[in-house]
Amino acid sequence: MQKAKNNPYPVRGTGLGLRREMSTVLSEQAEDLFDSGRLSFFEVAPENWMGAGGRLKKQFRAFTERYPFVTHGLSLSIGSPAPLDEAFVKNIKVFLDEHDIKFYTEHLSYCSDNGHLYDLMPIPFTQEAVTYLADRIKRVQDILERRIAVENISYYAAPGQEIAETDFINAVLQEADCDLLLDVNNIIVNSINHNYDAEKFLYSMPKERVVYFHVAGHYVEAEDLRVDTHGSDVSKEVWELLDKAYDHFGAVPTLLERDFNIPPLPVLMQEVDKVSEMQKARQPKIIQVA
Questions:
Q1: Is residue 262 part of a domain?
Q2: How far apart, in whole angstroms, are the C-alpha atoms of residue 178 and residue 175?
Q3: What is the tally of structural domains in the chain?
Q4: DSSP states of 221-261 as a string?
Q5: The CATH number of the domain where 141 resides is what?
Q6: First vs last Cα of the chain: how many Å apart?
Q7: How far is CA 220 from the centre of its chain?
Q8: Strand stretches in 83-126, DSSP E
Q9: Structural domain contains residue 5
Q10: Which of 130, 164, 214, 263 qualifies as a cystine partner to 267, CB 3.0-4.6 A?
Q11: Is the model's pTM score more than 0.70?
Q12: Considering the domain boundaries, does residue 289 fall inside one?
């Protein structure tokens, strides 16, 4: 794998997913939020901004020139049975280079097979899938000239499972030599839907590969069914597990996701501020991307 150029870009503290509908209000208030330490970084899905032009592209450039960014992709489809879309990966690299964004993450899932499925599908937890994924992740890292991180996803069925999910994730990370974006909400959602111990899952993840956390809200469909929506407030269970995560991993950078039912910025920032308060008692951790 070719290494990215030097000039690492550290990310720390608390972040917020930048959605287009937030861009106007944040263009007016971001400077104060960053100067006061209430925000430390933004995250975007590259697919939502790569094709932007005109005023929108200029507005986005104004953000990336002033504030730290990470990216969380939607369409890589790393587990797809279809060939890896290398042209798409090369377009991602152009986007990252153009905006001087050093870090790229994606879902440990797939969303296409000769056509887009518009959903994140679970990959079978098998050793064969581990090898398949590792080879594809290595190729993505070679093209991007960057290490990437993959995220533990929420899922509602586990077809063809042969090994435990925790063993599967650890094996992929080890064989691909990539990093982990640990989604705390997804752990809670899956622990309820699949009846497993959320804390045990959390502690089984490799400290040395965790680069940042996600927290988000989910929908309570039933007592034993949660739906990962990113459309509501962070739940009590997620806050409690995040607190345990900080005790175990340290004050890992943490990103609040909110994709719809987005409240006014002052309300949204209340959850960001809560993350910051939880981090303060812990030793800060910095993502150092080489």
A1: yes
A2: 8
A3: 1
A4: EETTEEE--S-SPBPHHHHHHHHHHHHHH-B--EEE---SS
A5: 3.20.20.150
A6: 13
A7: 22
A8: 104-107, 110-112, 116-121
A9: no
A10: 263
A11: yes
A12: no
Residue-wise burial string across 221-242, b where 16 or more C-beta atoms lie within 10 A, e elsewhere: eeeeebebbbbebbbebbbebb
Sign of the CA dihedral running 85, 257, 260, 199:
positive
List, for residues 235-276, the tens digit of each pLDDT value: 999 999 999 999 999 999 999 999 889 999 999 999 999 999
Question: Contact, 215 vs 275, CB < 8 A?
Answer: yes
Distance CA 232, CA 252 (A): 23
Which residue is it, tokens 């090369």? 90
Determine the structural domain holding residue 61 and report its residue range: 14-279
In angstroms, rounded to a whole number, what is the distance separating the alpha carbons of residues 75 and 122? 14
In the three-class reduction of DSSP (H, G, I as helix; E, B as strand; rest coil), residue 121 is classed as: strand
pLDDT, residue 183, reads 97
Q: What are phi and psi of 29, to 5 degrees?
A: -120, -10
In a domain, 218, yes or no: yes
Q: Greatest CA span in the chain, whole angstroms? A: 51
